[in-house]
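Below is how a single chain appears once it has passed through the pipeline. First comes the sequence as given, then the structure the pipeline wrote out for it. We keep one example in the README because the format questions we get most often are answered faster by looking than by reading.
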Amino acid sequence: MIFLSGMGAAILFTALWHRQLYSEDCAGGARFRIKKIGKFEDKRIEESSGLCPDGEGNYFTMNDDTDTCLYALGLKGEKRGRIAISAKNQDWEEICRAKDGRIFIGDFGNNLNKRKNLRILIWDPRMKKITGRISFRYEEQNSFPPLNPLQMDYDCEAMVFESDSLWLFTKNRSGRSTCVYALPAKPGNYVAKKKQEIPLLGTVTSASLRPDRKELALLVYRKIYFFSLPHGLQQIPAPDICLSAWNIRQSEAICYTGKDSLLISNEQGSLFMVTSK
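Resulting structure:
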């Protein structure tokens, strides 16, 4: 039997970790303020897992398990109605909106990395019905779940729409990166193509693009990363800002409400506004 020294074990662990080393300074609090602004009036919203504009000045959210409704709410959580969606909710984790009003619902929660039925629902608010489904798999995943326990990287809770594509940001179990995938934003069966891997310290739970499409926000538990996008989503640089957000607790939904403001919801039913100082 071979025993490794402390240094040897550390080298082996790093080799098996499969992640770029990354350190950060979450000092973004000098540029932003976070304030609690409300709670969900509709108590049926038990585990908000996504936020997006509804196109009429309000916002949609949804629960992430079983419940097949979208809930409309005001900026401070005011009840604005509920819409039943004719589709199964296996694990709805994210929601985003296209410029033409289509709503994309990500039914791709995959905690155990063993799902073979990952999909995104396309709901048209004008027709008030599902108009298509996007089925997909990740191009590198060949085992369900992966044989290597250090490669449980096929869970996703974050998605944005841009340029006729849907961009997915995985919730890697290592907590040291997120993988970026792209899919066509139209009905079909696709292989999600990996575009890049971004080193981070945290598991990504939601994403949002600024209205001018020049900035991306990624939410992790108790932190927010901000990325400038000089080349769009095709080439995402390292984050410009890391904002510590311990007071928002377990948060899984983020949405820009303007150029300098974002709305966040947490699983305790509270809403927070992040604004630049």
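The chain has a mean pLDDT of 90.

See the next section for the split statistics.
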